[in-house]
UniProtKB/TrEMBL annotation:
Residues 54-97 form the Xyloglucan endo-transglycosylase C-terminal domain. Pfam families: Glyco_hydro_16, XET_C. Its EC number is 2.4.1.207. Residues 1-26 form the GH16 domain. It catalyses: breaks a beta-(1->4) bond in the backbone of a xyloglucan and transfers the xyloglucanyl segment on to O-4 of the non-reducing terminal glucose residue of an acceptor, which can be a xyloglucan or an oligosaccharide of xyloglucan. The keyword Transferase applies. It comes from Penstemon davidsonii. Keywords: Glycosidase, Hydrolase, Transferase. This is xyloglucan:xyloglucosyl transferase. InterPro entries: Beta-glucanase-like (IPR000757), Beta-glucanase/XTH (IPR044791), ConA-like_dom_sf (IPR013320), XET_C (IPR010713).
Length: 102
């Protein structure tokens, strides 16, 4: 399970070039979690860093139908992917963008 949260400053990249209007009357914008506890491992580290918490679920990957469903969601619903934003990140893409997506 994953938890995602994002607050952004309404730059052009985050508003689909200005098509999505920001309603500043709703500010201040705040995001928080209550009673959220997590016990996880750092991605890319050896299983020893997780102690006895390591389980088979931590190494599961998407199967072919799951990858196809993910691609469909990305193509039909993803608004922005910073891995492809060379104007905003001219110094190059980040480490996670260099890894295989599937």
């Amino acid at each position: 399970m994953r938890v995602y949260c994002s607050l952004w400053n309404a730059d052009e990249w985050a508003t689909q070039g200005g098509r999505v209007k920001t309603d500043w009357t709703k500010s201040p914008f705040v995001a928080y979690y209550r009673n959220f506890n997590i016990n996880g491992c750092v991605s890319g580290t050896s299983s020893g860093s997780c102690g006895s918490q390591t389980g088979s679920w931590q190494t599961q990957e998407l199967d072919a139908p799951g990858r196809n469903r993910l691609r469909w969601v990305q193509q039909n619903h993803m608004v922005y992917n910073y891995c492809g934003d060379v104007q905003r990140f001219p110094q190059g893409i980040s480490v996670e963008c260099k890894r295989s997506r599937f």
